[in-house]
Amino acid sequence: xxxxxxxxxxxxxxxxxxxADDTSSPVVVFAHGAGAPSSSDxxxxxxxxxxxxxxxxxxxxxxxxxISVGKRKPPPKAEKLVEFHADVVKKTVAKFPGHPLILAxxxxxxxxxxxxxxxxxxxxxxxxxLGYPLQGMNGAVRxxxxxxxxxxxxxxxxxxxxxxxxEKLEAVRKRMKPMNELHVIDGGDHSFKIAKKHLxxxxxxxxxxxxLAVQVIAKFISASLGEK
Length: 228
Fold this sequence. Notes:
This protein is of the alpha/beta class. The chain has one domain: Alpha/Beta hydrolase fold, catalytic domain (Rossmann fold, 3-Layer(aba) Sandwich). It has helices at 8-16, 18-21, 41-54, 82-95, 108-117, 144-148, 166-175, 196-202, 206-227; strands at residues 27-31, 58-62, 101-106, 126-130, 153-158, 180-185. Helix 3 (41-54) packs across helix 9. The radius of gyration is 19 Å and the shape is globular. The N and C termini lie far apart (46 Å). Residues 1-20 have low confidence and may be disordered. This is KANL3/Tex30 alpha/beta hydrolase-like domain-containing protein. Residues 1-26 are annotated as: Disordered. It comes from Xanthoceras sorbifolium. InterPro entries: AB_hydrolase_fold, KANL3/Tex30_Abhydrolase, NSL3/Tex30.
């Protein structure tokens, strides 16, 4: 009778520590956009949502050097951020060996994440692009990095995002080699913000719309990891 009362505590502990012990749980490296650091409200909110939805062992965020110097400076070309980003990824992989690696990014951070995912010495399971900046300031479509990728890519884009016309992204997606999916946030801008009037018409809230997007991301990542 006394021995039958001992099992519950270990089982509770196992559930609590499941993601740390279970190497099927992914580790995510999440990069910020050009204008705001990893400490921004947007990044913190999405970090928490991704961690929960993906049952991630950890979501690692960081600041690119140009944004960490105190004075706000414009970002350098995305290519110049790849080595620093890759170094963060390698350190994360060393800290969480055996866990599938997911790269995620906001805007510019998603573009650099795709560049890092193309490096031969880093094994990436999937990339999550939140507001991919497909179109440059000069109007040119920046599709080279996407067309070189061989890992699954999940795009989440606002329908009113001027940096990524959806018809142009659709054309690029058709030419991409790996499995890829697009979730459109109707009425969303580059940061997925939706006008109150639009939300009222749709009888929805900003939180509900973003929660749905995270659910779609989780389903895609689950499918991607299942293929490995």
